[in-house]
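Q: Predict the bound structure with zinc ion.
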Amino acid sequence: MLLLLQLKFFLKILLSSFCSLPSFIRGLPRLFSSLPRIHILLIASLCAFVLIVSLIPTEIIIDKPIKRELILPASDSLKGKYAIAQPLTAIRESSAKLFPDFSGNREVEITIAAGDTLSGIFSKEGLSAAVLQELQEADTEYLRLGNLFPGQKVQLLINPKNQLLSLKIIVDRAHTLSFTLKDGAYVPHLEVKEGEWRNNYYQGSVIGSFYVSAKKAGLSVGQIQQISGALQDKINFNRELRAGDSFQVLVAKKYIDGVYSFDSEVLATIIKTRSATYTAFLHEDGRYYDKNGKGLSKAYRRYPINGKHYVTSRFNPRRLHPVTKRISPHNGTDFRAKVGTRVYSVGDGVVTSAYYHPAAGNYIVIKHGRKYTSRFLHLSKILVRKGQRVEMGQLIGRSGNTGRSTGPHLHYEFHVYNKPVDPMKVNLPLSQEVSKKEKAAFNKRRDLFLREMGEIK
Ligand SMILES: [Zn+2]
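A: Predicted complex:
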């Protein structure tokens, strides 16, 4: 009851105070003094609390992310259209540059399924076989039009006269091949995503066989073959290695857009047994050497065939095509060779392609480390398969006259960093040791590897 009376008095003063601000301020002390001590205390602590809260930095309170959901109108016409387009968004974006939007042109996109062929696609789209042949001819530089694999994407740009303006194949994550019609000819272009090489370190000790132990440590079959290939003349992997012997391996792995591309190479290997230490270091030339620069891999050989060599057509980047009179480079050396002549690998390496191509015929591509690649065209027989490791001097196929060839011969190419060079003139590592000229570079690489393996500081 007393509280009620006081409240009434309080309100009365408050109301009268509203009449003028000075009288309100004058009334304040009177107002407070009329309140009981407990109320003054309550008001004071409330004020203090409000003051403290207002002084706390606001970030703490709004630190939490604000989530908002975007809900699009569910229109049926939109749904159908975008449901198809969505998975191809990435390709549409990249193709926008290559396929300018000429009015009336139609763009066709096909995802290759098992059994699909380019000739099948061309006939379905009403494109002539002659155009496909022209493209295959233009593809002898890259050799990517011979085989299509499920999952690859093919894009065609066709004008209203049903003339193919552009063909684009997304070969894999790293390679996109395109042919663009320019002045009546298809100009090929291979776009290569360089990716990123990252070094991975593996170590372990031998329990059971080296193969099993290395697999257990995380090395792949291909990497183990690379190691045993490099050291096969030094160690008998079956007999010499015993339980407790240790191995250390440094592997470079290629990542494209952050995803491992299954392209790898063993940079360095150290195997320690009770009696000896074996080392193998990969030099830039794709060969392995021990820590002193003595060759472990065999040297390259100049010629892929034995016996006398009759060169019927030389490497010529400015060769004029006999019929079209256009510059059509001859990217290799042609050897006269009757059908069935043995063809040998010119160095240690790994087979990256062994297929049929309408223009190149049966062909083989061998990669010798990151720097060198060799190619053999128009073969009658392929005796290796993709992914296989080969040694210098190994029989890989037999020469022939397949594809578009003017007669039995072997067309042999040698590439340095993916650019064709004259195979008869290229400066090949033909000797067993690292040359004096390259010794400093070799030592620098070796020490870099040893540091990464924790062998030197
Ligand atoms: Zn040739």
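A: Residues 313, 330, 332, 334, 411 surround zinc ion (CB under 6 Å).
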